Amino acid sequence: MSVNLPNTRFFALIPCAGHGSRAGTTGPKQYQPIAGKPMVMHTLAAFAAVKRIARTLVVVSPGDGFFSRNFAPVTAAACGGDTRAISVVNGLHELRKLGADSRDWVLVHDAARCLITPELVDSLIDACVGDDVGGLLAQKLSDSLKSEQGGRVAQTLGREDKWLAQTPQMFRIGRLIEALEQSCDDVTDEAGAMEAVGQRPLLVPGGSQNFKITYPDDFALAEAVLKARAR
After folding, report:
1. Which residue from 70, 109, 115, 164 has the least number of CB within 10 angstroms?
2. Within 10 Å of residue 1's Cβ, how many Cβ atoms?
3. Residue 112 and residue 64: Cα distance in Å, rounded?
4. CA distances (Å), 36 to each of 21, 33, 197, in order?
5. DSSP states of 13-70 as a string?
6. Mean local confidence (pLDDT), 76-100
7. Whether 34 contacts 222, CB under 8 Å
8. Gap between the Cα atoms of 86 and 96, Å rounded
């Protein structure tokens, strides 16, 4: 059952300013077609189905006209930066300009995790809304984990306490701005910024389908999942 506290608001922020060079696409990977529509549209549809999300803000690069040409129930802000962290910080400040409060929650999600479901978003909100810090969707590591040296295995690492970080990652807007501005150059996700300032985000079970499309083979797998869901 969904949990909601009085005067609690939830915002979604989707950084959408990257180019995805590892994906092997001719343009930004988030706009490549999957199962009949641009990848990011699948992502946004999942958040649009979460009734507790007050507003979804998409951060794009300056000059990106995708959302002026394609309707989506979101606000697009052309304040993307050179890194994900900069894009997120700029997007958070834009949310404040749009009326969000520092105590409101923000759910930051990768545009390229287009298999996210409303149910997973709701499960993160329910788990984190009463938490002092916030948290992220993640998946316990199931494969053996190896460290490498010179192309050979250097060591097998214990996997019992290892998780694969996913998104959304949910934190208070004000605290996340402070954390990112203090550690912006050294982190790859929002949880890492919170950890850098001494916080311990909550790990909330995600799912194997909530993967980030990164490599060329990922497109076919995502398309197969989306088509199977539509049957």
Report:
1. 70
2. 4
3. 17
4. 22, 6, 42
5. EEE-----GGGT-SS-GGGSEETTEEHHHHHHHHHHT-TTEEEEEEE--TT--HHHHS
6. 95
7. yes
8. 16
Under 8 Å between Cβ of 96 and 24: no
- φ/ψ of 135, rounded to 5, equals -170, -165
- Can you say whether residue 63 is alpha, beta or left, with left for phi > 0 and alpha for psi between -120 and 50 degrees? left
Q: Residue 4: pLDDT above 80?
A: no
Sign of CA dihedral 168, 169, 170, 175: negative
Mean pLDDT (whole number) for 165-189: 93
Q: What residue spans define the domains of the chain? A: 10-230
Q: Residue 55 and residue 100: Cα distance in Å, rounded?
A: 9
Residue-level pLDDT at 119: 98
pTM over 0.85: yes
Please provide residue 107's backbone torsions phi and psi, each rounded to the nearest 5 degrees: -110, 110
Measured between alpha carbons, how far is 72 from 196 in angstroms, rounded to an integer?
35
Q: Which of 128, 111, 138, 110 is nearest to 206 (CA)?
A: 138
Q: What is the pLDDT of residue 2?
A: 61
Measured between alpha carbons, how far is 13 from 95 in angstroms, rounded to an integer?
Answer: 9
Identify the three-state secondary structure at position 151. Answer: coil
Q: Is the CATH code 3.30.1360.120 the one for domain 10-230?
A: no
